[in-house]
Amino acid sequence: MSIAAPSNPKEITLRGIILGILITLVFTAAQVYLGLKVGLTFATSIPAAVISMALLSAFKDATIQENNIVQTIASAAGTLASVIFVLPGLLMIGWWAHVPFWPTFGACAIGGVLGVMYTVPLRRALVSQSNLPYPEGVAAAEVLKVGMASRAGAAEGKAGLRAVIWGALTSALFAAGAAAKLLAAEVSIYFRTGTGATGIGASSSLALIGAGHLMGITVGVAMGVGTIIAWGVLVPLMTSLTPAAAGVDAAGHALGVWSKEVRMIGAGVIGIAAIITLAGLAKPILGGLKSAMDTARKAKLEGAVLDRTEMDMPIFVVGLVTLIALVPAGWLLASFLQGGPLMSLAVPLVAVGVGYILIAGIFAAAVCGYMAGLIGSSNSPVSGIAILTILGAALSVGFVGRSVMGPEVAQALIAFALFVTTVVLAVAVIGNDNLQDLKTGQLVNATPWKQQVGLLIGVAAGSCVVPPVLELLNHANGFVGAPNLDAISNEPLAAPQALLISTLAKGVIGGNLQWNLLGYGVLIGLVLVLINFVLKKSSNDKYSLPPLGVGLAIYLPSAVITPVVIGAVAGWVFDRAVEKRAGGESAKRIGVLVMSGFIVGESLFNVALAGLIVLSGKGEPLAVANSMSEGTTMTIALVVGTAIVWSLYRWSAKNGQAVHQQ
Question: What's the chief localization of this chain (predicted)?
């Protein structure tokens, strides 16, 4: 479906900017909570595009390009929130007791600006002159085209907005049931296996079901395989080698060994999968950079007048903004060291930090951008990038600080390495997002430089939201492993990715990293890479088993992974069931929006609950006294959750059919 492009369509408008910022604020808060609870985030482009189209349809002069700018601004929320994969580590090691606004805002904003700048020169090579599929970018463009093209499209846009609202309301109510203790927060079973133990858990979370649907069947199967490796093989084996202490039940035994040993094996799988993925990308990325530079040079020499749809930010502006951004980056790092035990090493540490942000940031942005094109920004190996970044940062700052090493100095070096990694990760995830958005823009005839400005606006808005939401959750719940000096609730958030990153930093700088467990993970990862290669080759790229997905399932708790796998399988079954019916494609898109609503509703409810915990001073302000057993609340959660998912899938199918008949 082609869109006729006026020579100068309405794109960046005040109403579009305001709407984009409002959606960014809401989605960033949701993403921060989801990332801290389960270690996963979701792409916000498609729900943002649908909300934008439904609201801007009130204006006769709204254009597809204006709606595209709204989703570009809002997409920053889905990615910038990934910095919480690192930041809580500063609370976990006891460096911060509270989340300070300006250092956190600065790390997000500087990293985000650099992420946009680093990927501007890659657009031609990796977007307009590339055959990379960009699954999420293409899907967002398709939603925009359908929504703007016809009466049926407008009807689908309205149905899509209803889908987001229904999904959000039902998941918020379901989460409220868990907060009231009427539904079990987790359905689980643990048992002995001879001298060992194992089990499986599933969080009562519609948000995780939604995340599984959005990730798709390939990642879902990979995570299912990872769960079998972790809980079917490694946990029973390693618990039998480490007998339980007196009085420890099967759940305590299995979870204890998993958290101390099996997780580190999972980290090894993630690390090696990321390294091999990155090694395979070296040639196309270098080729892409060369092509971008050649194109820019040719345009300059020939003095060609570029079409509006090929106009990026001028390379001079990109270079200037990059250099200017490094000044506050240096100031931010210097102020982080102010008054601490590393003051005497401030100059070399700041120099190493800024250099690392510059070089590692370029590398991370290019790799994540390419991966967004290959498998979509949601599936991009951000976890692997974070692991490699913290290892590099810890080695670099540890080398500088080795001359004054002591307990206080070690903690300060770990904190500094985590802070530098936060900035690099912000660079990576926004680079990831920029190219995905630019692909959407290419398909709807948008102006690239206007999108790049839009993403900078989204970065600024998202950076304002991350610190207060993070501090609210820190005050209300605290984090696993942190001193939690001020937490009100006794149910801390797991922040699993931040726990891994801080553990690696401590291990590298303290010299006590469990290299043997990481090594076992590397061996498993190499076998998985080989299996994936054979599978893709023999099926002509039809089937794959992403090693990164397997590694994440070994590393993340089964309570998180099980509902994600269920959501992926349920989504696959739903898509297969409706694809041959009338309005099947519309039904699929509406289903995606229901699942996005699940994530937004549950996450926002839990952010609001954190606010209520802080205001009331009670750890469980909504809990209702009842005499129901744990088994009963588990059964209720299972039945109610299944009924909601089934009903809304059915509703999506009916609405798809209704849209088709318009």
Answer: membrane
